[in-house]
Specification:
The protein has 603 residues and is an alpha+beta fold. It contains 21 helices and 20 strands. The chain is 36% helix and 18% strand. The strands form six sheets. Strands 2, 3, 4, 5, 10 and 16 form a six-stranded mixed β-sheet that branches. Helix 3 packs across helix 4 and helix 13 packs across helix 15. The longest helix has 29 residues. It is elongated and about 115 Å long.
Length: 603
């Protein structure tokens, strides 16, 4: 019996050793996770950042480039006595700043490398290497560069990721940069490239001891993909020059393709201000600026479209059969029903083409009421919703779907909106201001330019977009190649186009200041009422009349009449684009010297 117990104990011990041996074999031969954990104790994985893709204008001119820059690193334990004043002079900082950053690095870790100064220039890096600074070294990065210093709001800027971005997207790590606005944000995944990895051997204190396996497992960064934008750099520069000192925007579109030729917002900023070590300080200055230069008014402002909207009401009236091109209405200083709507002096009565030419308020009040009070709808509420659907088919009241992540919807009011506001008690006179582009209507300058392109195309548009080509792809997003049709038959556009042509070319037309011999510009002025000061000046146009090449919308806050300042700016943009010259330098001088008081901005 004793012998049997001894044998059992012997077998148990053998079995235990067998289990341990098997486990050791699994750990050392089969399972690599423990080896990886050990390796990670002696290897440091260093991110290699790729240069972001360049951005060109439509003619191949650089708008955005990447230039080399460097982060200055230090391992506090390895730092020996050095010439602090000389290093400060090289970096363009104070001696106290150098000492402060070195103290912060020491507090973090004396053995591990820390970033002391980010994004120093190539020139500063070369000067740094002329001297001996033990314990300091540089790491390659890139920063953005803007040769033309234009289109800041359109191109956007790049900034360092925060924890919220890191939590949302595991691709990004602390110290990475990401597009924060504009093209940089919309096309971040295209422009950013792919990070590489360099593996270094380090000792137990974290001190680098050389490349691991002679770089066998390193991966090179892949540069970001270049983009050719739809922008015309020269035309954009002219628009920004003409907008200087004003608050507003200029948007120009190629009607056939929907390509954005100009998107200028004013006030704007030099995009180089948001690059380099002063980026943070400059950003806060721009953010606090009461003129809001970081705000892209072309896609982020919702304005009353004013009289430019009359063309939509005329087209809806034709399609609905409540109006013909020959239908005439009287105007003796305005629309006389209800509270009335005032109008300027012109001949009376007018047909549709003449009403567009003279921008008659009374005419379009009659038209709107005939549309929404049409008996076939059985009431104003159904009639207004039918009208609203027509308006939305022109791209109003919703995002157009452009490649701008900041794009606003604008607003087209519905019957439900008025039911809530007036508790169901309202009629066509309540909403009469919609006839002249006022009231609750809101549109972005991009939507107004798209309307000009839609009329130019006689009833259809392509989604406005700012990227023409992504260099590693055969085409851009397919949605930018699709035609979007309004609910109005193309045959109804001719009398409206004729009215817009007469507004520019016939005596007494509201936009005669925009006339350029031989260009056949078709335009519509707008004076948008503003409860906070002088009226806004707006103008939309396209040219030439047949086979149009450019459509433009200009919106100038507090600029008064549409012909006062918006129309001259649009006319100059059209002339420059179609003829590559300006024959009216006196008009440029007029625009540049046009003064608008913005008291709320001047405090």
């Amino acid at each position: 019996m004793k012998w049997s117990r001894y044998r059992i104990l012997q077998l148990v011990v053998i079995a235990a050793f067998a289990v341990i041996a098997a486990r050791l074999f699994y750990i050392q031969v089969i399972d690599s996770s423990y080896k990886m954990s050990a390796d990670n104790n002696v290897l440091r994985y260093m991110v290699q950042y790729p240069p972001r893709g360049e951005v060109y204008d439509r003619n191949g001119e650089f708008l955005v480039q990447s230039k080399e820059a460097y982060d200055l690193m230090a391992v506090p334990r390895e730092v020996k006595p050095f010439d602090t004043a000389r290093l400060a002079s090289i970096l363009g900082v104070t001696v106290e700043e150098v000492r402060k950053e070195l103290r912060n690095a020491s507090n973090y870790s004396r053995r591990r490398p820390s970033v002391l100064f980010k994004q120093i220039s190539k020139e500063d890096k070369l000067r740094f290497e002329e001297y001996s600074f033990p314990g300091f070294y540089t790491v390659y990065r890139t920063v953005r560069s803007y040769p033309r210093k234009i289109a800041g709001n359109l191109l956007g800027y790049v900034g360092e990721v925060n924890q919220r971005i890191i939590d949302r997207n595991p691709y990004y790590k602390s110290g990475d940069f990401i597009g924060m606005s504009g093209i940089e944000k919309a096309y971040e995944e295209v422009l950013r490239g792919k990070k590489g990895i360099k593996i270094q051997m380090v000792d137990v204190h974290g001190i680098p001891k050389g490349s691991y396996a002679d770089g066998l497992y390193d991966t090179l960064p892949e540069p970001g993909t270049a983009i050719t934008s739809t922008l015309d750099a020269g035309l954009q520069a002219l628009a920004e020059e003409l907008l200087a000192g004003k608050v507003g925007s200029v948007v120009a579109i190629e009607p056939e393709t929907g390509e954005i030729l100009v998107m200028a917002s004013s006030p704007t900023y030099d995009p180089d201000q948001l690059v380099g070590r002063e980026r943070g300080n400059n950003y806060m200055k721009l953010l606090r600026d009461p003129r809001h230069p970081l705000f892209n008014r072309a896609v982020m402002s919702s304005y009353p479209p004013g009289s430019t909207f009359k063309v939509i009401n005329g087209l809806i009236g034709l399609q609905e059969g409540v109006l013909t091109p020959e239908t005439a209405y009287p105007c003796h200083g305005g629309y006389p029903v209800g509270r009335g709507v005032k109008c300027h002096n012109h001949a009376s009565p007018l047909d549709l083409t003449e009403a567009v030419q003279n921008s008659c308020n009374a005419y379009f009040c009659y038209v709107l009421r005939d549309i929404v009070d049409n008996r076939k709808y059985g009431g104003i509420k159904k009639g207004l919703d039918v009208w609203a659907n027509y308006v939305r088919s022109f791209g109003y009241g919703r995002k157009l779907g452009s490649d701008f992540v900041e794009e606003l919807n604008g607003n087209v009011p519905s019957a439900e909106f008025y039911n809530k506001r007036y508790r169901g008690s309202w009629n066509s006179l309540t909403v009469i201001s919609l006839s002249i582009g006022q009231g609750e209507l809101g549109a972005t300058p991009l939507q107004m330019a798209n309307l000009a392109a839609t009329v130019a195309n006689r009833g259809h548009y392509r989604i406005p977009h700012v990227v023409k080509r992504i260099h590693d792809r055969d085409s851009i997003d397919q949605r930018f190649y699709e035609d979007h049709y309004t609910m109005v038959d193309p045959k109804y556009f001719d009398p409206v186009v004729e009215g817009m042509w007469r507004a520019v070319h016939m005596p007494g037309g509201t936009a005669s200041i925009a006339r350029v011999e031989g260009l056949d510009i078709c335009g519509k002025t707008g004076t948008a009422q503003n409860p906070h000061g002088a009226d806004h000046s707006t103008f939309m146009c396209f040219a030439p009349r047949n086979n149009p090449k450019i459509a433009v919308s200009v919106y100038i806050e507090n600029g008064r009449f549409g012909a006062t300042i918006a129309a001259p700016i649009a006319s100059l943009i059209v002339e420059q684009y179609l003829t590559d010259t300006i024959t009216r330098p006196q008009l440029i001088d007029y625009v540049k010297n046009f003064q608008i008081a913005y008291p709320s901005y001047d405090k």
